[in-house]
């Protein structure tokens, strides 16, 4: 399920429960995005 989410929705999914937070924090999900020159607010 997480692999279909973009970075913003992955952050929202992480707030569902502790297990989803742990799963969404896995580095494999974050490797596919390049955050250089992009602003990400704490709310995202």
UniProtKB/TrEMBL annotation:
Annotated Pfam families: F-box-like
Gene3D superfamilies in the record: 1.20.1280.50
Domain F-box: 1-34
Protein name, per record: F-box domain-containing protein
Species of the source: Nymphaea colorata
Lineage, uppermost ranks: Eukaryota, Viridiplantae, Streptophyta, Embryophyta, Tracheophyta
């Amino acid at each position: 399920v997480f692999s279909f989410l973009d970075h913003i929705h992955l952050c929202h999914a992480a707030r569902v429960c502790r297990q989803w937070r742990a799963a969404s924090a896995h580095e494999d999900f974050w490797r596919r995005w390049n955050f250089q020159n992009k602003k990400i607010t704490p709310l995202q």
